[in-house]
Amino acid sequence: MSVRGRPAGGRVRRTAAALLGARARLRWAHLILGGALLMPYWLLSTVVLSVFSDRVGAFSGSFRAQAAAYLLALPMAAVTGAVPLARPMSVAVARVLCGVPAELFADSPALSRAAKARTAAWFTLHVGLGGLVSGASLALPPFAAATMALPFSPGLRESRLGDAWGADHRWWVVLGVPAGLLMLLALAAAAAAAGALLARRAPVLLGPTPADRLAAAERRAAELAARNRLARELHDSVGHALSAVTLQAGAARRVVDAPEPDLVFVREALAAIEGTARRTVGELDSVLGLLRQGEDDGEQSAGPGLEALDALLAHSGLKVACALEGDPVASVPGPVSREAYRIVQEGLSNVLRHAGAVPLSLRLRAADGELEVTMENPLTGGAPVVRPGGGRGLRGIAERAALLGGHAAGGPARDGAVWRLTARLPLAGGRR
Predict the structure, then answer these.
(1) pLDDT at 54 over 70
(2) What's its EC (predicted)?
(3) Domains of the chain, residue spans
(4) pLDDT at 383
(5) Mean pLDDT for all residues in the chain
(6) Rounded to an integer, what distance in angstroms lies between the CA atom of residue 317 and that of residue 351?
(7) 375 touches 267 (CB < 8 A)
(8) CA quadruple 73, 75, 81, 83: dihedral positive or negative?
């Protein structure tokens, strides 16, 4: 019997928890709140109905009048539920009291027609069930208590309640206690069922609509694009600086170890290292500043443009022959100018990594609605530098060009004598 009794006891405990447990009590409170929210609509309904009937009033004892006011209050509540801010307010309450995971809700205001319709349906369901459960919670417990007191109170047995129960028959009066307990149990079961119904419908009616999911996907794509942009900024800025510093430090070390060290060259190399480091720290602060503010707010501090090209070439560690056509510094929009600067910077870094201190030719041509960047350096024939995980320089350059509606490509040219990097950036891409 003990073995058989354990499952029965477990079922009893589970039933008691479902009816009177912490979650059931929270959902009951949620329903009571819905009943409180229904009251203004119900009172307004009684005023409206009193215009058509003298027998209808806020405190009328007529069940038909109160039922009519209840039914008229529901569409009024639905209109209120269609207000955009109704969804975040309903979500805030339902998240706490319904026991539904927070990630299933949509916190933003309901802006689309589908979202407003769902929120209105939820609000109507909440206040509708809440009004019924609240009314039963107010009326049924006193009635059940009086019913259970019938066998012990002659006064109650002589009252209208006793007449309703047939209190003149002793055997019927004895059933008052179990009947009252059944009423309270039925109230608890009805409240638990209504709370469970709300909990099941909450993710459907207060969850994200397809339009909300699309907007969330667009936000995630924008955030990912911003993260990729920051990664490219850090890669280009820091990568170029480290390549230039490494080249200058290596050259200075070799000169110092020479039998007759050229101290002037060493000083120039150290000054170039210092200048590159200072400039890179400033660029790094600018890029990291984007992490502390929105993309739009950080647009003006997004990094240097072609106006800083001379300083970049002077501290690159390479002999660069630069040719400008069409005044690209003044005529190119800011976004295109910044992306072009980063493309040149990454091109310099690639030359330092793969070819060393070789001569480089750079041409920037602004004409026909686009900026063309061309970089050429001789191929040394040495093995290219391979970094763990592979380099991302050319891919980053191609991504920068693609964001502006252009394209970039790199590869051997002139029968393999030189390496050529070409990027074409539409000037209109910087004005969008």
Answers:
(1) no
(2) 2.7.13.3
(3) 15-208, 216-430
(4) 44
(5) 80
(6) 10
(7) no
(8) negative
Place of tokens 């993260």: 227
Strand partners, 324: 364
- Indicate the angle between helix axes 63-81 and 113-149, nearest 10 degrees: 150
CATH topology assigned to domain 216-430:
Heat Shock Protein 90 (3.30.565)
Task: Tokens 């801010």: give the residue.
Answer: 85
DSSP E strands: which ranges in 153-298? Answer: none
Question: Could you give the count of Cα atoms lying within 13 Å of 77 in the half-sphere of its Cβ?
Answer: 30
pLDDT at 385: 44
DSSP string, 302-336: S---GGGHHHHHHTSSS-EEEEEES-HHHHS-HHH
Number of residues assigned to the chain:
432
What is this structure's pTM?
A: 0.55
How many Cβ atoms are within 10 Å of 100's Cβ, its own excluded? 20
Output 117 or 350, whichever has higher pLDDT. Answer: 117
Residue among 201, 210, 213 at smallest CA distance from 90: 201
Give dist(CA 107, CA 207) in Å, integer: 8
How many CB atoms neighbour CB 165 within 10 A? 20
* High-pLDDT (> 70) share of the chain, %: 79
By three-state DSSP, how is residue 172 classified?
Answer: helix
Residues in Cβ contact with 77 at an 8 Å cutoff, skipping those fewer than 6 apart: 37, 38, 41, 123, 124, 127, 128
Q: Between the CA of residue 224 and those of 198, 219, 326, 342, 406, what are the distances in Å? A: 36, 9, 35, 20, 21
Interval 282-286 mean pLDDT:
67
How do residues 145-185 score in pLDDT, each as one tens digit? 888 887 777 766 666 666 666 555 555 566 778 888 999 99
Amino acid letter for position 197: L
Contact between 384 and 275 under an 8 Å Cβ cutoff? The reply is no
Q: What distance lies between CA 319 and its chain's CA centroid?
A: 48
Give the whole-angstrom CA distance, residue 352 versus residue 354: 6
Task: Using the structure block, give the residue that is written with the tokens 């319904």.
Answer: 98
Q: What is the mean pLDDT of residues 415-421?
A: 88
Please state at what angle helix 63-81 crosses helix 86-97, rounded to 10 degrees: 110
The token pair at 76 is 């009024």
Radius of gyration of the chain (CA): 39
Query: Across the chain, how many H-helices and E-strands are there?
Result: 15, 5
